[in-house]
């Protein structure tokens, strides 16, 4: 199934547009891709925040080896734009969690992050070798990870404030490389039994990833302010960082 993009509003930041296109293109090469069901009131959301219109669009799929592929594109008025994407693996497969985020505004991109986060002790060596096959761009403004992030991100995480169009282009190329490595890993992966210790460890590792991500209070505060605390909890717990189903 070829993913169909949501209608994009005019004035979308070029890096947000480019990354969304790269993610959708990468999805198309995954085995057994199909739409993932979701409550309609969580798929496309409109509200108000500080007198400006807030819109959030979500695209959700799953495939062999990945329990959920999520792309969220949000926009506040004519200013703040956010891209958020996470690919959650099925714990039966030895796969990392792909994650990418962009925060952009009228002054430019304030934050850009991409990682293949391990759900076990470390990323497989073959995957690391593939990541390292592309030279690391000489980004000028590397940002510090938040305290909760150090517990889940890999040694290959890239978290920057792009310094102009050259940095934005280099980050886009890096994300495309991480996507290619991820897609190759998904295609090559084979399942392990639910009772295997490695499967159990990956399941627990993914639970921890979701727990740590939920500690990002900035996301919760914005959603609570635009909607209410109960809706924010539901959006975070059911859509953004839902726990993997119990092993069968």
Structure commentary:
The protein has 248 residues and is an alpha+beta fold. The chain is globular and about 50 Å long. The protein is 36% helix and 25% strand. α1 runs parallel beside α4 and α6 packs across α7 (229-240). The protein is built from seven helices and eight strands; from the N terminus they run αβαββββββαβαααα. Strands 1, 2, 3, 4, 5, 6, 7 and 8 form an eight-stranded antiparallel sheet that branches. The model has no long low-confidence stretch (mean pLDDT 92). 35% of the residues are buried. The chain has helices at 14-27, 40-43, 125-132, 165-188, 197-213, 217-226, 229-240; strands at 34-35, 44-49, 52-63, 66-76, 81-89, 97-105, 108-117, 158-160.
How would the blueprint of this fold be written?
Blueprint (H helix, E strand, L loop, with lengths): L13 H14 L6 E2 L4 H4 E6 L2 E12 L2 E11 L4 E9 L7 E9 L2 E10 L7 H8 L25 E3 L4 H24 L8 H17 L3 H10 L2 H12 L8
Antiparallel strand pairs: 1-3, 2-3, 3-4, 4-5, 5-6, 6-7, 7-8
Q: In summary, what is this structure?
A:
This protein is an alpha+beta fold. The chain contains seven helices and eight strands.
Strand content: 25-35%
Form type: globular
Element-by-element helix/strand order: HEHEEEEEEHEHHHH
> Radius of gyration in whole Å, from Cα?
17 Å
| Mean pLDDT figure | 92
The number of helical runs is 7
Number of strands: 8
* Low-pLDDT segments: none
Q: Share of helix among residues?
A: 25-40%
Q: Distance between termini? A: 27 Å
Main sheet properties: 8 strands, antiparallel
Q: Which structural class do you get from the secondary structure elements?
A: alpha+beta
């Amino acid at each position: 199934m070829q993913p169909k993009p949501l209608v994009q509003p005019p004035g979308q930041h070029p890096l947000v547009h480019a990354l969304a296109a790269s993610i959708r293109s990468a999805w198309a090469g995954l085995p057994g891709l199909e739409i993932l069901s979701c409550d309609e009131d969580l798929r496309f959301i409109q509200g108000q925040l500080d007198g400006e219109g807030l819109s959030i669009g979500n695209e959700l799929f799953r495939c062999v080896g990945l329990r959920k592929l999520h792309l969220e594109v949000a926009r506040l008025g004519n200013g703040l734009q956010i891209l958020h994407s996470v690919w959650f693996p099925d714990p039966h497969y030895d796969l990392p969690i792909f994650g990418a985020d962009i925060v952009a505004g009228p002054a430019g991109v304030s934050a850009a992050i991409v990682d293949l986060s391990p759900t076990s002790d470390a990323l497989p060596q073959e995957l690391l070798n593939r990541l390292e096959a592309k030279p690391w761009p000489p980004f000028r403004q590397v940002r510090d990870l938040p305290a909760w992030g150090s517990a889940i991100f890999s040694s290959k995480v890239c978290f920057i404030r792009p310094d102009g169009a050259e940095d934005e282009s280099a980050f886009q190329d890096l994300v495309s490389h991480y996507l290619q490595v991820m897609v190759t890993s998904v295609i090559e992966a084979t399942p392990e039994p639910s009772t295997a210790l490695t499967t159990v460890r990956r399941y627990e590792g993914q639970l921890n990833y979701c727990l740590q991500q939920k500690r990002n209070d900035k996301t919760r505060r914005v959603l609570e302010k635009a909607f209410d605390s109960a809706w924010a909890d539901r959006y975070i717990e059911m859509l953004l960082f839902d726990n993997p189903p119990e092993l069968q």
